[in-house]
User: Which sequence fits this backbone?
């Protein structure tokens, strides 16, 4: 995978070169696109950013201001952009260490640098084929298909849909590079909670592990994943998290015999719409009645310590633990852990001719996931939009 300014791609069809296991034949790529959610970087950015996030839902500014308090408490700055800068730098360093000189671009869906601008800049530079990796790792509309839609719509908006090809690495929820940092973090958090209990004279206090992820509408959860597979709880999104949690527990002897559960956070939207439950704070509130004295909170659904981790877990969930007298510790996200960064580069190399890695490692029976999303995977229940990087893609297909 070396820098090269290619001619116009011979084909934009994401179905070309895909085998029966959903693996795409390796290609030459001119650059890597790190795609993320984005976040405000000052008090004046907060409401415009939230308008971008909720565009089309008709949510008034007074409602947005309720969410804005989370950002305003942090100076109006979401940590996600700085974390993405750090991740971009870490990727560049790991690529350089391996002797790979492919440039890394960075674009956001909801704040500068916007994906649309990055695509135009890439084309103007002379790049014709990009390989995208996102900071959302599980299968659902918001964490996969919406990225594919944003790329599709922005390629159309810039007139680059037949000029610039963007492929996407597989969802990497159970890649060892993502999972192993959690194993390390949960082991450390267990030790810390046991230290807290020992200081209280409760060395034998019962501990429970809460694996937390972003709640999504139940209908979206049930639409996640390909239509030709069955999943636990009828949802690829839920099944992937449960499989990861089991894989982590199985790798930590110190966690043997401990109770654990998958919980949800950061719910938004109409209270009349069913969303995945239980909420993490509701789950914590039920622990004392079960005799639990200590809690390990694992941000299993997240790549970095962005606002929903810092507010919903480090503030609200930890406050709930304190009010109930529970010993508690929150495990870290992968961030720029060297195992995670190396794993991302491995994922990129899976798809390239140069420096190719043919193996597709996965720590759960659900993976490895597909290089090219299957037809109808993670359907948009609010109406189909142009997409890239899927078997049902509409943008760039000749």
Assistant:
């Amino acid at each position: 995978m070396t820098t090269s300014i290619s001619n116009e791609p011979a084909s934009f069809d994401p179905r070309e070169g895909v085998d029966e296991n959903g693996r795409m034949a390796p290609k030459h790529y001119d650059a890597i696109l790190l795609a993320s959610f984005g976040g405000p970087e000052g008090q004046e950015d907060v409401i415009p950013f939230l308008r971008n996030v909720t565009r089309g839902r008709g949510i008034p500014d007074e409602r947005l201001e309720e969410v804005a308090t989370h950002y305003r408490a942090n100076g109006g700055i979401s940590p996600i952009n700085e974390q993405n800068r750090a991740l971009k730098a870490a990727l560049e360093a790991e690529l350089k260490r391996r002797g790979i000189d492919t440039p890394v671009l960075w674009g956001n869906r909801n704040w500068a640098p916007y994906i649309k601008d990055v695509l135009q800049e890439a084309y103007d530079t002379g790049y014709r084929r990009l390989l995208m990796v996102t900071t959302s790792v599980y299968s659902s509309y918001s964490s996969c298909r919406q990225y594919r839609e944003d790329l599709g719509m922005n390629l159309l908006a810039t007139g680059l849909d037949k000029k610039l090809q963007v492929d996407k690495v597989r969802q990497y929820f159970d890649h060892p590079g993502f999972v192993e940092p959690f194993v390390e973090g949960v082991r450390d958090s267990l030790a810390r909670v046991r230290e807290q209990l020992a200081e209280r004279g409760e060395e034998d206090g019962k501990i429970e592990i809460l694996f937390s992820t972003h709640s999504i509408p139940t209908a979206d959860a049930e639409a996640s994943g390909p239509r030709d597979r069955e999943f636990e709880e009828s949802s690829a999104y839920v099944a992937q998290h449960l499989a990861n949690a089991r894989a982590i527990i199985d790798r930590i002897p110190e966690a043997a015999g401990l109770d654990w559960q998958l919980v949800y956070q950061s719910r938004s939207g109409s209270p009349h719409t069913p969303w995945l439950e239980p909420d993490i704070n509701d789950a914590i509130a039920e622990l004392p009645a079960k005799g639990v004295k200590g809690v390990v909170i694992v941000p299993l659904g997240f790549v970095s310590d962005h606002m929903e981790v810092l507010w919903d877990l480090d503030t609200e969930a930890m406050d709930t633990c304190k009010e109930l007298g529970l010993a508690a510790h929150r495990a870290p996200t992968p961030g720029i852990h060297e195992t995670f960064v190396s794993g991302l580069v491995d994922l990129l190399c899976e798809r390239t001719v140069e420096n190719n890695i043919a193996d597709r490692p996965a720590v759960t029976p659900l993976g490895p996931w597909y290089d090219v999303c299957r037809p109808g995977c993670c359907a948009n229940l609010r109406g189909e939009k142009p997409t890239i990087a899927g078997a049902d893609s509409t943008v760039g297909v000749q």
